[in-house]
Amino acid sequence: MKLKQLESMLGQLQQFSNPKVELEQYPTGPHIASRMLYTAENSFGDISNKIVADFGCGCGTLGAAAFLMGAEQVIGIDIDSESLEIASLNAEDLELDINFIQCDIRNLVWRGPIVDTVVMNPPFGTRTKGADMDFLSVALKIASRAVYSLHKTSTREHVKKAALRDFGASSAEVLCELRFDVPRLYKFHKKREMDIAVDLWRFAPKINKGNDN
After folding, report:
1. pLDDT, tens digit, for every residue of 136-159?
2. Are 185 and 129 spatial neighbours (Cβ–Cβ below 8 Å)?
3. pTM
4. How far apart are CA 78 and CA 38, in angstroms?
5. For residues 206 and 169, is the Cβ–Cβ distance under 8 A?
6. Share of the chain above pLDDT 70, in %
7. 3-205 placed in CATH 3.40.50.150
8. What is the tens place of the pLDDT at every residue in 174-209?
9. Cα–Cα distance measured from residue 167 to residue 56, given in angstroms and rounded to the nearest whole number
């Protein structure tokens, strides 16, 4: 699938109708989501015919992108039931066969199939300090091939150090810097929308838990 086609299809998805500030719910826009999954597949072969998990899936944008890029199976995990309802409707509308699980990522004990790749737009950790690192820690335990994640550019050194030193990643690479559009969703937002500089990371776990196929 071409990048423009992928972005156009993701642009049809419903987003949060009642976002929860305590969960730092911000929609992953079609521009970022399409580039994230397109890069994961076309530069690294980490999506097609792979089992992909979307951590903190929200309304399911990254999971939908993974399915459209040829994933064998996609599993979306989120703590919020309202988000999962929207994600299910989005998958239905695009006729995508995605499995959704309600669970707090930080308490996840995985007994499902071996996950090749985890994709995620975790909370930035501004409301719950360290939430972004909690997601990354669990993702690196679950993924057998790669983790793709978005983190504030301002936290780049911290993220790299934590991944390599604390979470057992064998590599941590910034693939590109992107502009994350944050629309005015909450009362404390003064501007109609704002841009946040984010890094698209690719992390590789230290131990290859699955078959490299």
Report:
1. 999 999 999 999 999 999 999 999
2. no
3. 0.89
4. 23
5. yes
6. 84
7. yes
8. 999 988 776 554 444 455 556 788 899 999 998 654
9. 19
